[in-house]
TrEMBL record, chains A, B:
Residue ranges annotated for the Cupin type-2 domain, each copy included: 65-127
N-terminal signal peptide: 1-17
Domain of life of the organism encoding this protein: Bacteria
UniProt KW keywords: Signal
Protein name, as recorded: Cupin domain protein
C-alpha cells in the first residue's frame, strides 16, 4: 500500500511567465486566496471552501478544498457532469437519494455520476476535508436542491 | 492561511450500491489498486504511478498520484486539454519549453494549458509527489515527446 502525505493549502494564482494568459504555465501559490464560508442556502453547519483552481476553456474543470466541521454537510444536489471527491482528512458521510448513508475516510476517492442526487459532509462527531473536482456543462457544475434535514442526516 | 493535511492512498474501485454501473456513487477503497512503474519511454529515473480514478463519459476526467524519486522526471509532453497538478509532498521542478525551470513545493497548484510542451519531476535532491488531473480529447489526454536530457534537467 502506497501512502503519500498531501499538504493542500488555500492558494491564489500567479503567472510565473510573462506570456499571454492561457499560453503559459501558472502556479497557484499557497495562502493568499481567501477562504469562503459555505453559504446557508447550500450547506448546514460550519463549512469552509478554499478555492484551488479554475481551468480556462477548453477545459471544463475546477477544484476546491472543502472542510466540514462535525455535523456540517451540503444540501442535496446534483452535478450535470458528475463530481469526484478526494477525501484528504477525517471521516465523513455521503448519501445517494434512496440509498443508505456511507462512511468515507481519508485516502478514499468518491465518484458521483451525472444527475445523481446526493449530499456529503462530516460525520456527527468528526470533521472531514475533501478536494472536490467537477466539470461544467454550459458554465454550470452543480444544481442545488433542498437542505438535508437533521432526521435524514442522522439516520443510518 | 488554511492548511489541510491530505492522505491520498493508492486505491481501487468498489461499487457500494447494487445499481447499474454509472448510476450509483462508487468509492475507491485504499490500497488495492497496484502501483504502476513509470515507463522508460515516458519517464527518467524512478517514478511510481498510483491510479486514483477514471471517470465515465460524459466526464472526460482522470486522476492519478505520481511520485518522483530525486532526479526523476517525465519526458517532454503536451496535453490536448491541459493538465492540473496538485503538489502533495516534497519539492519539484516544472519547465515549459523555451522558459526557465520553476520550483514547486507541496500545497501549490500548477495549471498547464492545452498544447504547452513541458516536463515535471522531482528536484535533483528531493522527491516530489503530485496528483495529476487531465481531461481527454478523443480518448487521448497526453502526447509524449522526447526525453529531458541531463543537461536540460540540470540547467537553471
Amino acid at each position: 500500500m502506497t501512502v503519500a502525505i498531501a499538504v493542500l493549502l488555500s492558494a491564489s494564482f500567479s503567472t510565473f511567465a510573462a506570456d499571454i494568459q492561457g499560453e503559459s504555465i501558472t502556479v497557484a501559490r499557497s495562502g493568499s486566496q481567501p477562504s469562503v464560508p459555505g453559504g446557508m442556502q447550500r450547506f448546514s453547519g460550519s463549512v469552509r471552501i478554499d478555492p484551488l483552481f479554475q481551468s480556462a476553456a477548453p477545459s471544463r474543470l475546477s477544484g476546491g478544498l472543502v472542510t466540514f466541521e462535525p455535523g456540517a454537510r451540503t444540501a442535496w444536489h446534483t452535478h450535470p457532469l458528475g463530481q469526484t471527491l478526494l477525501i484528504t482528512s477525517g471521516r465523513g458521510w455521503i448519501q445517494q437519494w434512496g440509498h443508505e448513508k456511507q462512511e468515507v475516510v481519508a485516502g478514499e476517492v468518491v465518484s458521483i455520476p451525472p444527475g445523481v442526487k446526493h449530499w456529503h459532509g462530516a460525520t456527527s462527531t468528526t470533521g472531514m476535508t475533501h478536494v472536490a473536482l467537477q466539470e461544467a456543462l454550459d458554465s454550470k457544475n452543480v444544481n442545488w436542491l433542498e437542505q438535508v434535514t437533521d432526521e435524514q442526516y442522522r439516520q443510518p
